Amino acid sequence: MIEFRLDPRSGVAAYLQIVQQVRQALLLGMLAEGDRLPTVKQVVGMVAINPNTVLKAYRELEMAGLVVAKPGAGTFVTKTLTQSSITEHEPLRRELEAWLAKARAAGLTEAELDALIRATVRDTADEEK
Amino acid sequence: MTAIVEAHALGKRFGARWALADCTLNIPPGHVVGLVGPNGAGKSTLLKLACGLLTPTSGSITVLGGRPGSGREQIAKVGYLAQDAPVEPALSIADHLRLGAHLNPRWDKALASARIASLGLDPKQKAGKLSGGQRAQLALTMATSKHPQVLILDEPVASLDPLARRDFLKLLMDTVAEHGTSVILSSHLISDLERVCDYLVVLAAAQVRLVGEVEELTAVHRWITCTRRDADTLPAGVEVVSAKHTDRQSTFMVRSDTPMPPGDWVSEPVGLEDLVLTYMERGPASAGPLAPRNVESAR
Asked: How far apart are CA B295 and CA A61, in angstroms?
């Protein structure tokens, strides 16, 4: 079974932290298809959070097609995410590297790069909503 | 479903002083409600009104559809834990549980004993010999073993060390997960509230300053940082909650039900702590309408 931890200072909503930790566990192979996620009661006992937060995180994972809730039995992993899902995106990564090289050549500092990337990610995420 | 708490123009006066004034609330069921505010803001008064220990000077309040303290049925529905988790020092834990069984029609003896056992407490121990954390756990066990539909907790963790606080909140959330109990809890510890609460009521100077689901409240508020300018130059439809200016820079907390349009400013999310502190500070003299905003009713 995996364990969750919450960082109140991260600025990331608690349910998103759980979603991210499940995704990480899938990527790192700590969770695989057929594994059961901790029950809501177990999570609540681990990290002292609102049960609705856990339910919300699990619903989000279900909508992403990563887990399925079987009433009375628990929530089960339906998909294995391995490192390959990152390596599959190697072309994207190469484009990003090329872009970064251009940005540095244009004189952007690391802090400016970081701010630009974050702002762009945030703005485009807003547009998709 | 019936609201946990429904209050209309509720007020309570002690002598010449209004401890709570013109408080209107409608809190939907199934929530863990965090009640925050400075000392003397009226938190304890509101909680005591909700469980019938005080009667309103003006206005009205119902809890789960009933008038607080109006009879056995109503009292059985509401669990209340007063500030500092009072227990009887001379009585043992077992005595407390026996007392609970006698006083409450729906007392769950099995649950109470199981809780005490899982906490590793000896039923023969006198309550006066317990640590602060254990005393709080005993008091919470007493309040939950009567199977209330709503638990009202007045600063339950204020005097506990961080570990005992976490254990207390685990036990509380366990109750919520297991029995679907609604909870109203007052606290100064916003980081704790952030973990457990999904609904927020901010009180200051006897008045409700902010009400709503935590997620919605954090979604509609933004920090806007820009070159120095007046608040009224911001886009229409944006309510300015707070404004601070230096010689070069202006920082606004804004409330906007639609996404902030892009502009020559940096727009950042607002954390719960900043949100709470800003609304607490926002005095009657500040700009903008003072009427408490309720996201629920604005929909």
From this structure: 27
